[in-house]
Amino acid sequence: MARVDLAVAVDFEWDDDFALERAALAPLGVQLVPAAELQESSAADVVALLTAGTRVDADELERYPRLRVISEFGTGYDGIDVEAAARRGIAVTNVGGYCTEEVADHTLALALSLVRRIEPLAAQAREGRWESVDTGSVARSADSTWGVVGFGRIGRAVARRAAAFGFTVCAFDPYLDGSQIRAPGVEPLELDDLLCRADVVSIHAARTGSDDHMLDRRRIALLKPTAYLVNVARGAFADEAALADALDAGALAGAALDVLADEPPAQQHRLLRHPRTLVTPHSAWYSDAAAIELRTRGIGNVVDVLSGRRPRDLVL
Fold first, then answer.
1. pTM for this model (two decimals)
2. Is 66 a catalytic residue?
3. Of these residues, 263, 273, 309, 312, which one is catalytic?
4. Which of 6, 56, 127, 243 has an alpha carbon 20 to 30 Å from 170's alpha carbon atom?
5. Looking at the DSSP assignment, which residues form a beta bridge with residue 238?
6. Distances, alpha carbon 4 to alpha carbons 122, 165, 299, in Å
7. Residue 236 banded pLDDT, cuts 50, 70, 90
8. 218 belongs to the catalytic site
9. CATH code of 147's domain
């Protein structure tokens, strides 16, 4: 029986059963097989892995002797052992920047929902409470400071939006010179100083693994009791137990999270239904246009490698 090359979707699915990806691979004679349907005996024929946050380590790579490319359908590729891939001559690609505007918009939406107390006020309206409205404490944006952690594409897009709403913006990024942060009118600060000063802190850093729990219990305690934390980057950046404790104690006004350390979270997760949190299901990246760009570029990188071309989004 003739050998058949396979591209494997590792950990995600589309409602259209990968119609776009299958169409792109068809001219190459390459089939797409979801990981759940892949037999161990078929692993020897796999030439590409399509991943979306899956951990792909050196042991996993041993299963695929003909593997030529790992295409991460997303921006972050911290789950892929790029050094192990390099030793085997395997290309690693991602789709950086496809959802910059979407994540920045989502960040502002989450933060402003907390700052303006949209959810509790909407609940009061549904209850017919129009005369004795409990507004709570609501700060004016022009009197507030927004701290951006990670000043890459998304961090800069958030800074532009926050400034347009009147916030004074500061940022921390250990990989940038202060002048690079100052250029768009943003004040560079060390992380501890930013946490002490900001009224809203949003996280947009790229995960390296060494910065897990970057916001540990000590740093979460630096935040003002009136401050809000927004995390749309990686759940691992914040110590979730410490964050929940701070919210329980009223040491932090609220938190908005699009990411958690374990996804999907257990239903009893302390932050999922906390009265001071707003949680969305890792959806900040989404728009119709972003989804098409993600899929087109993700599979395009695979087609390029299998066709002997340098892929647009080569990481390694």
1. 0.91
2. no
3. 263
4. 243
5. 215
6. 56, 55, 18
7. very high
8. no
9. 3.40.50.720
